[in-house]
Amino acid sequence: MRAEQKGKEQLQRRRLREDAIDVSNPHHSHPMFSDESPPFLNPSGPRVASPPRRPNATLPTIYAITPTYSRPVFTAELTRLANTLRQVARLHWILVEDAATRSELVSRFVAGAGLPCTHLHVPTPRRYKRPGLPRATEQRNAGLAWLRQRHQHLPAPQPGVLFFADDDNTYSLELFHEMRTTRKVSVWPVGLVGGRRYERPVVENGKVVGWYTGWRADRPFAIDMAGFAVSLQVILSHPKAVFKRRGSQPGMQESDFLKQITTVEELEPKANNCTKVLVWHTRTEKVNLANEPKYHLDTVNIEV
């Protein structure tokens, strides 16, 4: 009986540790920052089990900033990405909605996502929505601002890595293992981008010396948004480093951002010296809704 009682007490303590997921909610000064949704809880359904945290407590946290916006494939894209991120230890998802207010759809999704997640929102000004202009600038900057606010008052710098995880890409779990050891800025190839099967940094003797790319090889950093990660300490030590609207040409946002925080000589090649593709710019094709009725005719209202 004593052994049985001891076993029950150990199980109860383990459950309490699993429930004590600390995702703090700092005091946001930005009016468009929302409260963090409690991780691993789904108010409209069963509790989603949290992954074990104790063995991974010393790992640097990966912060994945994902800009998103309303469209027919919206939920499908986020579901696919969440299914990948949920398998990564010590990852915090910063989901930034292109909207003036938080949508109920995304709020419900975040609540049931099953991983630590912060839901922010900021609208793209109408004048910047024209074709050919850079997209998701305001959303990425909102994620950067939140990250800096969260860490600015901590007594000691926390180990971490920042990665821009667009919701239309496909990610290998190996990529997150590679980026977690980033000291300053790490880089790797990206598949299915730039009109080629892949683009990559060219590496010699462990250093980046050029770029294999199908578009504008003269860019200072001829790299896709999915092709680099930045240490949290670099982000915090360069508080003015943001994605720019003024003076930034189409396709140059990555270069304009990276120029503020590093040089090509300092880049850290990952993925077997940039010879292995671990992320693909897949993009979901445009959905055919030609037969969708103008007015809702079904007897039930289903979210897609």
From TrEMBL:
Pfam name, any one: Glyco_transf_43
Protein EC: 2.4.1.135
Classification via CDD domains: GlcAT-I
Pathway(s) per entry: Protein modification; protein glycosylation
Region (Disordered) residue spans: 1-59
Family recorded in the similarity comment: Belongs to the glycosyltransferase 43 family.
Glycan attachment residues as annotated in the record: 273
Residues that coordinate or bind UDP-alpha-D-glucuronate: 67-69, 98, 135, 140, 166-168, 281-283
Residues that bind Mn(2+): 168
Active site per database record: 254 (proton donor/acceptor)
Gene Ontology, cellular component aspect: Golgi membrane
Protein's recorded name: Galactosylgalactosylxylosylprotein 3-beta-glucuronosyltransferase
Membrane-topology annotation of the record: Single-pass type II membrane protein
